[in-house]
Structures are given as structure tokens and as C-alpha cells.
Amino acid sequence: IQLTESGGGLVQPGGSLLLPCATSETTSHWYSIGWFRQAPGKEREGMACMKSSGDELYYEPSVKGRFTMTRDTAENTVYLQMNNLKPEDTAVYYCNIGDAWGQGTQVTVSS
Fold it and tell me: Are the beta carbons of 79 and 71 closer than 8 angstroms?
């Protein structure tokens, strides 16, 4: 499976971004889908995870209430809606299914 993230960019604190992750095949038979991020000098960390059934979601505490993960099964796309962004959200964001990773998309939160 191939994953392609997009939607990153420069945004001011308090702003919003929507990150799509396009998948090359249906995600319904995968156990889970996740969003991760990696800031400079830090390890990659998990932000949000969704079971393939779509009925269970996990959010890392620092983003819970600000980030929302959804998916469009018809379009084979998973989304990460990020609201009330903070400078500490600056990182490269990746989506993940099994052993597959996208190339990442850079999100920079700065005034």
C-alpha cells in the first residue's frame, strides 16, 4: 500500500490545517490507521489512531480536543483536521498503515 500526505504549510498560532492522506487501496482490511509526527531532534510520536472499523479512535493527550481524524472510504483517504494549532505542533506529519509510511508533510506553526 502507498500513502501520500499533503496539506501541510505555514500557519499562525490558533490557525487550522486539514491534512489528507491518500491511500493506494482500500483501508477496510487493515487493523488500524495512524497519524504520527516528528519534530526536529525528536522521535516520531503517535498523534491519532483509528481502527479500520472506524469505531475506535485514540488521540495523544496534547492534541485531544484540537485534532480530529476521519476517513472517506469511498475516496480511500484519511484526514487529520488540526485546529487551534500551537508552535509546539510544528513537525513533519506522517500517516501509517502497517509497515507503510508516507513521505510526510511539513507543518509549521509560527507568527
Answer: yes
Among the listed residues 98, 108, 96, the one whose alpha carbon sits nearest the alpha carbon of residue 4: 96
Dihedral sign computed on CA atoms, order 42, 71, 75, 89: negative
| 10 in Cβ contact with 17 (< 8 Å) | no
Whether 37 and 16 have beta carbons less than 8 Å apart is answered as no
Mean pLDDT, range 38-44, rounded to an integer: 95
In this predicted structure, what is the pLDDT of residue 57? Answer: 86
Helix (H) or strand (E) segment spanning residue 4: strand 3-5
> Strands 32-38 and 45-51, how do they pair?
antiparallel
